[in-house]
Amino acid sequence: MPFTSLTPDTHPDLTAHTAAGTSTDADPRTARVAAFFETLSPASLGKLSTVYAEQARFKDPFNDVTGLSGIQRVFAHMFDTVKNPRFVVHHTMTEGTHAWLTWDFLIDRPEGTLTVHGATQLTFAPDGRVSLHRDYWDTAEELYAKLPLIGTLVRWLTRKLSATA
To answer: Beta strands 130-136 and 52-59: pairing type?
Structure first.
């Protein structure tokens, strides 16, 4: 079976969002999540229940929690441990009760801004709130390789394990 690219033009349920603030994403659920992340702050953590269902699951490379209090702890910890964390959502795609976001996560450091590229898989509950949020990003390439000391070891291991080295 040949591969058919799904685009907003060829598939009415598939929509897109760009970080420039111009959204072609007609799905209000996905647009709400993207806007929430682009404006996330310690003060907005009290509004998690407008985006996440009571028993939503949140999973990323470091956390796997269920429920609003667990999700709030993850984000509160982020604000407590890194300087000026922020998300820039580049694209969203929605089909039925599933959506994907691609994003950059930025953190200020003395030596400059650290940028982590990633993607999020979302599943929406019947009420339109998120029931599953799963982040995908490469911790070795996007984080560990950019850190002092451990970064040298990670880059060396990456070169040693690469088929093209």
So the answer is: parallel
User: Per-residue pLDDT tens for 147-160?
Assistant: 666 666 655 665 66
Task: Enter the pTM of the model.
Answer: 0.74
Q: Which amino acid is at 122?
A: L
φ, ψ of residue 163 to 5 degrees: the values are -70, -20
pLDDT in tens, 45-78: 999 999 999 999 999 988 999 999 999 999 999 9
- HEC profile of the chain: CCCCCCCCCCCCCCCCECCCCCECCCCHHHHHHHHHHHCCCHHHHHHHHHCEEEEEEEECCCCEEECHHHHHHHHHHHHHHCEEEEEEEEEEEEECCEEEEEEEEEEEECCEEEEEEEEEEEEECCCCCEEEEEEECCHHHHCHHHCCCHHHHHHHHHHHHCCCC
Q: State the amino acid at position 110 in one-letter form.
A: P
